[in-house]
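Q: Hi! First time asking for a complex rather than a single chain. Here are the components, and I think there are three in total. Is that enough to go on?
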Amino acid sequence: MPFIQDGSMFQKPPERSDAILVEVEGRSVLVPRGASAAAAALIAGLPSTRTSPATGEARAPYCMMGVCFECLLIIDDESSQQGCMITVRPGMRIRRQEGAREL
Amino acid sequence: MSAGQHVGGYDVIVVGGGIVGASIAFGLAERGKRVVVLDEGDRACRAARANFGLVWLQSKGDGMPAYMRWTRRSADLWPAFAQRLQTFTGVDTEFRQDGGLAYCLGEDDFESRRAKVAKLRAQADVYGTEMMERSTLEQLMPGVRFGEAVTGASFCARDGYCNPLTLLKALHAALQLAGAHYRPDAPAKTIEHRGNRFIVETPEDTVEAERIVVAAGHGTSALAGQLGLAAPIRAERGQILVTERFRPFLRLPGSGVRQTADGTILIGSSKENTGFDDRTTVGVGGRMATRAIRILPELANARLNRTWGGIRILTPDNHPVYAESTHFPGAFIAICHSGVTLAAAHATDFAAAIADGQLGEFLDAFHPRRFDVPKAA
Amino acid sequence: MSDSFDLVVIGGGPAGLAAAVQACEFGLSVALVDEQPEPGGQIYRVVERAEAEGRARGLGDDYRRGLDLVNAFRACGATHFASHQVWQVESDGRVFTSDGTTSRQIDGKRVLVAVGAMERPVPVRGWTLPGVMTVGAAQILHKSIDLLPEPEVWIAGSGPLLLHFAAEVVEAGARIAGILDTTRSSISRAFMAHGTGALRGWRYLAKGLGYLRKIRMANIRRVTGVEAVEAKGDSQIDRVRWRVGSHWEEAPAKGLLLHEGIIPNTHMTMSLGCAHVWDAHQQCFRPLTDAYGATDVGMIAVAGDCGGIGGARVAECRGRLAALGIAAALGCITDEERDHRSEPVRREFDTHDAIRNFLDALYAPAPELLAPPDDVVVCRCEGVTAGRIREAVALGCRGPNQVKSFTRCGMGPCQGRMCGPAVTGTIAAALDTLPGTVGSFRVRPPLKPLRLGELAALGDGESAE
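A: Yes, that's all I need. Here is the structure of the assembled complex.
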């Protein structure tokens, strides 16, 4: 299973037996236990995690500590979740949020 | 008398740079008057920054047919007013006038609304509000999934909305482009009358003009007193919830829930007596959230990004007060809590009356002497 | 329906942990509410797990101090609300939190805000591009899951954390492309102004020199005197540009990590209406407090970096002082006992705080970070540039709140956390006045986006206001 796509700004993390399998944009990715959903998106090599509803620009996590709100993701079908504040669980489905959400 | 300089050369001083003051100032400047607007600073009370943005007829004017006609007049003027502001300043007030709804929850609510609508129509048939059963409502707003408790709504085709923040910005740009001067951080401390001139003292200087309009929201009472006018105003807090942005799905504004042009959902409304405490609270927020979810159950998953609190400017009967001082002719007051709806009329008819130097018979109905009349038993 | 405690501590970093431990020693009932799943805050992030995984030693001795603190907290008897985000605090001591699904109310006779610091936002051209992050973000990823940057990642900015992280990367056997150091002052100039303090804090200085040595020995390029940094790319960063004097240079980049110091996270104290002052040394707003961290709002006290940047050891001291102040206020100890016990804490505080003025002078942020050029985005959430802010000032706006209403700056999900400093700074520069005069955004709850359903459920059952 691929950890990192080409172009990710982070290196492949050390392999551990307690790694967790999640889905990022439909693709299975192994991530370290304790990783946040935003980290999982970075590890999977997503070029961006959302497009801004205000400007349409591609955005990705900036602060990783809950201040910038750029890591808003759709997690297990629930929109607008701060990916950096949510720890991955086995089978978690992580998707990009494009623009404004649907009700 | 302040030690600063003395500034003259104006025809009219407008005290107050909110939506009411700015509308009047723009209208006066457009009519060739030399105007200065004296406004407070960044942290002022500013009802202009804390309102729902409705251009609304259907609930207004119970007990005062003149106010109903005034509201209707402003709604008729709004489309041209919005167009004028956009052309002149480039700022889009996001005005839409496709109709508005006041949702009814339950049968009793529907019936009592029907009675209110009938009562207003009997006073003055100028709104055209109709009752809509749920099935008609669903046809009017296809794709919207209403909650079970929604029995229908009252619908007025002339109701609409705008973006109150861009409205204020457009008015500020417009009045300055039209030649009026705008002075922030310049609250009026005292008003004196000497000869045929009014002299206003600000922290920095004194400003004088032949006429003065006090449209300073809650600050109006104290200043009106200096002009021999009684302007009884009470404060009432209203809270608003604002969600994250959504793709457009709610085409028409409702009186307690509407979607803005940016996609955010505004949820109101509430009334509390808290003096000038404009903080927002969990209790009221929770009640408003509950009601909104009863109307549109899917809103339960919407994320609340921020809340607003504002202090409404209410006269004893909740209707506007306009008056010219008899002791000091040329001094006027303008008080209302529907500054957005009345912005068009303020920038046209009302400004024209001030420019003419007299309010006229129609606006005389809004004089505060009406509060002195003892009510019939 | 709510839980009640003598003291509710908000924040699980060194200040909050030390306060909780001290307050429990006095027999107070204590709740600690933390948005992270594990205690330690940012500086000691996941220290327990790092220890269990055998990684703690590699993260330095300071980190181990965090372990001692967390262990003391675990043993002290406080109730720990982990993974709870506080979205509203009332001045009468009611705290509203969400665990992501359900909201609850936690009442305290006293509330201690210990929410720490945030990275100073770095508004430069291209900073909103994917691939641009903070050094702090990269450090979090390293501490929590051992992630390291790729060799084509650049670091840019100024401050102790910059060198610390670069050295950390080298220590872990990885590399970065280079460091673009924007530090304007010189060590000698800062030393002349604050030499005594610098000498008292010699341990910190020695650490800094140690980081520099590691970086040099790993042959990592360090460019000094950098006056401008830009991220370039279409939908993500692919190169970085920088200027020294009038000379521009460019290099390919897979990522850019920015850092220009840290500033207090004042969102919560501002929402409470606490008085704040503009700190000219640290170029940021911080709440006004007395010697024990009490604010001018009845039940609310402050400890740690959110009250002014001091670092982890200073934060611990402030936490203990706050607990002493609260214990005295609640009648557990007399004022005399409080003052007596605070003496050794103050001495420790002075030792660790001695270096602060020197660091603040050395690493003062460039004026362009607080008043960027017209085309630079200031409000990331709403895409508002510095130029639009200046237009609003030209229209008559005199402060951030009027600017907010005219431009939408500060209305997005982050509610002004990222744009606040530059909005104030840009207005102040445009009006040729001080940031303290201009003021800051009016901050409203919710402090974190809250599902309407949670508010509805809580509001219905809420106790009387």
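A: The mean pLDDT of chain B is 94. Let me know if you'd like any chain examined more closely.
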